[in-house]
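Pilot study result, target chain (136 residues):
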Amino acid sequence: MKRFGNAKKEDQTDIDITPMLDVVFIMLIFFIVTASFVKESGIGLNKPADSNEPPNPDAPPPIVVSINNLSEIRIEDRLVDYRAVKPTIIRMRAESPESSVVVKVDPKAKTKSIVEAVDGIRDAKVLNPSISMESS
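Predicted structure:
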């Protein structure tokens, strides 16, 4: 069959991807710029200062919360559930209000149990618990 019009011209379909690349680069720049302003949340930790001085003998003993490699929470060598951290710390602070709270963490403990323990301590109105990493 014969076509009408100019039969010598072939149908050419060229796709120009230059505008698409421009849009992609603009989006890339936008996401890079906005990602730099995102503030990551974290836990503020109060690490005890290294000192060779012996502790003050008149100071009350600290409340020790330890988290072992099995992610078990122990307060003064008693195994407690993470939901019992807050009432236990409140009771112990009522008995000795000047006591500080020290969290001793095993390096193999899960982060979830550490966060649960620290959240319970902070819920008990202890603002700056000290965190100590046990050497393995």
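One observation from the pilot: The CA atoms of residues 69 and 108 lie 5 Å apart. A full batch analysis is planned for the follow-on phase.
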